[in-house]
Every structure is written in structure tokens, then in C-alpha cells.
Amino acid sequence: MGIIRDGSRQAEHSVRNLPDARATLAPRYRSVRLQSETLCQPLEPDDYGLQAMPDVSPVRWHLAHTTWFFETFLLKAFLPGYRPFHPQFEHLFNSYYEQVGAPFPRPRRGLLSRPTTEEIFRYRAQVDEAMTALLASVEETRWPEVAARVTLGCHHEQQHQELMLTDIKYNFSINPLRPAYRADLPVTPAGRNATPEWIEQPGGVQEIGHDGAGFGFDNEFPRHRVLLQSYALGSRLVTNGEYLEFIEAGGYQRPEYWLADGWRVACEQGWQAPLYWEKTDGRWGLFTLAGMRALNEHEPVCHVSFYEADACARWAGKRLPGEMEWEVIAQKQNHRGNLCETGYLHPVPAAGDSCPAQMFGDVWEWTRSAYAPYPGYRPAAGALGEYNGKFMVNQLVLRGGSCVTPADHIRASYRNFFYPADRWQFSGIRLADDR
After folding, report:
1. Neighbour count for residue 255 (Cβ, 10 Å)
2. Are residues 166 and 225 part of one domain?
3. Which of 173, 207, 238 is where one domain is finished?
4. Does 303 fall in a domain?
5. How many whole angstroms separate alpha carbon 292 and alpha carbon 285?
6. Cβ-contact 398, 418 below 8 angstroms
7. Is 98 domain-assigned?
8. Which end of the chain is more exposed for a tag (fewer CB within 10 A), N or C?
9. How many CB atoms lie within 10 A of CB 344?
10. Are residues 98 and 234 in the same domain?
């Protein structure tokens, strides 16, 4: 299910480091909730219920599920006398919390015409009003746990904001009309292909994981030491033009570049290019949240699976980085980049000659690391403990955020994770090499 994960223990780290959390948390809550609804403003009523494949969800489900989180884990637990909006919503909008109750099947979310979108907005309004009352009235002894869960819930909703945009893009892409989510999105700069360089990193003992300052999900803890061999990381992301060279060299026809499972999936699904690429009259274009655009060869390649990223790296005589290698270099960088707030909602060419470039934003970068617990990791007790631990199998880690990730939501220790065949997320490639 990608980055949508819930938990409680990790949120305690953010609360301890927030100055006057009681004064700042209510505005933070309102801002995050408003942003979800702002993202919906370009939509037409018929858009809210689309689910084009099992991996995506209707927009109105995202709006309801994030509301369900606050109702289930805060209002029912901490606000005396609170009455749920609807008794069946606990079932309909539960994602995967088996300890709370049986979730409604994910592939069937798009089959529900009721509750209506209007009713879901009323659901959000009731919960927001009750949350305002809770934050204003909760006693000091219960405040730490309430603040921890609200902080977590805000980051959880930001994850869904990213998913709303990725899911809208996929849902719109299957329509022959190729509708735009927002036709007014700025066109990305023409750019240029800066000569790729290598960031050299000597081997030795390094520390990775969340340092405890600010919020972090539980899969980022505990911070621990790792032993790395010497390696080098690409100074920028692989571009569309470079990936096009891989395609034109027969990359999708040559099994020697592919992992066996990747070759099987590519053949079964008929992959010949990244998701959303289309060739018309000999020219490549691609579908974006602004509709169809001509392929800009200087933009980072996007919407590739781990299998495609790995095959491209092998063709280039390189490899994908391990997540530890990526984080050691990323934690020395600032977190600025082409994130959601820049307004492109699409990857852009690397700017200037900064080195490294594009460590944060543009695309989630595939690593070759399996998504697994850090040494000493323990999931939290109770239903919120279902957040991460039970998903730590058969998935790969991605790092760095994308062009639809909220800027105050990303950090060097953030671990995203998807299955190796997934392509609908904004995922791309940075090369690495041994030394």
C-alpha cells in the first residue's frame, strides 16, 4: 500500500521536540486538513469516485479515511460523549487495521456510490469541529498522548495528499480524452543535461536513522551504526533522454539486463517504456497532471518500477544505491527541492551545477534495499502498532520524496516502500557504483 502507514510510538519523538505544542498543534491540524480539500478544488463531482485499478483509491475514500483516523484514534478515545458520524464508517474507511475491525476490501472501494461526496465533506466538518473541541479541552495528563496521535494523524493525511495526486493521475490516464487535473500547471524549464558526476564516499562506520529531532515514523528508528564499503553516488537523477537511450538500445528486449522476476513481469504486462509514455507519429509524449505533453529529455525519468530501474542501471554498467548509502550522503544536504509547494507537480530538470542535485523532490528514488526493520525495532502495542511492522516483507525502499510530496513532510531518514513492480508512484533512478 505504499507510504500510507499508521502508528503511535514514533509520534512521541515529535511531541517532545515541539515548542508549546498545545499552541501550535491546532493551527497545524487545520492547515493540513484544509490542504486536502484544496487539492480537490480542480475536480468535477464525477471524479471523486474513480478507481481505475486496485492499487489506487477514489479521492473521496482518501478524504474519508483520513477523517476516520482522527475519529477512531482520537475522538472515540479521548472526547467524552462523542457520537460517531455513521456506525458503518468504521468498516467502510478502515484501511487495514484488523484490531479495529474488518476493513472493506480495497479493490472494491470504487464500487461504492454511497456515501456521497457531499456526505463525506459533512463527515469531515463534524470531525474537525470535534477535534477543535478536543484540542482546546483535553487535560494535561492526557495531552502527551493526544498530541502524539494528532501529530501522527497530520503526517498520515499528508501521505494521503500525495496519494490523492498519484491516484488522480492514474485514474485520469486511462481516459482516452486524457483530461487534465490542472491545465494551469506551469511548464517545466527546458533545462540541459548537466554532465553527471560522482559523489565519492569512503567506506567506514556511519550512522543512519532518525536522530530524534522532530517527527519521525517508527520505521526510521532506532538510529544505528552501519559499516559501508567505499562507493559513489550519481550527482543527479537519470533523465528521460538517458532512459530513452536504454530503450533504443533494446533494453526492453534484452533479458540479460533484467532480474528473472522483472523480465517475467515486463513480458506479461508488455512494458516497452515507463508508465504514461506514449509514442505518436514517431515522437514520445507523456501524460501528466496537466494532460499530455511532449517528452522533455532533460527531466528525470519517472514512473518506472524497481525492475526497470535495476535493468537500466545494469545496462549502464552501474547499480542502484543501497538505502544506507543514499542516507549517508542525503543527511548532509538541505531538504529543498522540487516538492509539492513548487507548483509543478511534475519532475523538473536539475537546476544549475549543484552537486548533489535532486536529493529531495522530483521523484522517489529506488534503492536496492529490502524494506526490513532496523536493529532493535519494535512495533508499538495495540491497533496503531499495525502501522509498519507487518508490511516489512517483499517490498523495496525508496528515498527522497517527489514533486507531489509536502515539503514539511520529508527528511533524510524517511523510508518509503513499494513492491518492485509498482509504477504509478512518482518513482525514478539515481545510479551508484562500487569503489
Report:
1. 14
2. no
3. 173
4. yes
5. 7
6. yes
7. yes
8. C
9. 23
10. no
Q: Which of 280, 416, 402 is nearest to 340 (CA)?
A: 402
Q: Provide the grid cell at 420.
A: 518492485
The three-state secondary structure class of 397 is strand
- Provide the domain limits for residue 81: 11-173
To which residue does cell 484501511 refer? 95
Nearest to 66 by CA among 163, 167, 162, 157: 157
Q: Tell me, yes or no, whether 4 lies in a domain.
A: no
User: Are residues 250 and 122 part of one domain?
Assistant: no
Q: Residues with Cβ < 8 Å from 124, sequence gap 6 or more?
A: 33, 37, 63, 64, 67
Peptide bond connecting 45 to the previous residue in cis, omega within 30 degrees of 0 = no
168/216 same-domain check:
no
Task: Tell me, yes or no, whether 160 and 203 share the same domain.
Answer: no
Note whether 220 and 363 are same-domain residues.
Answer: yes
- Number of domains the chain contains: 2
| Domain contains 189 | no
CA 208: distance to chain centroid? Answer: 20
Local structure of 147: helix, strand or coil: helix
CATH of the domain at 106: 1.20.120
Same domain, 142 and 210: no
* 59: nearest Cα among 151, 180, 182, 170: 170
Give the end of a domain, one of 115, 140, 173.
173
pLDDT per residue as tens, the chain (435 positions):
233 333 333 334 444 444 457 889 999 999 999 999 999 999 999 999 999 999 999 999 999 999 999 999 999 999 999 999 999 999 999 988 778 888 999 999 999 999 999 999 999 999 999 999 999 999 999 999 999 999 999 999 999 999 999 999 999 999 999 999 999 999 988 877 778 899 999 999 999 999 999 999 999 999 999 999 999 999 999 999 999 999 999 999 999 999 999 999 999 999 999 999 999 999 999 999 999 999 999 999 999 999 999 999 999 999 999 999 999 999 999 889 999 999 999 999 998 767 889 999 999 999 999 999 999 998 877 777 666 677 889 999 999 999 999 999 999 999 999 999 999 999 999 999 999
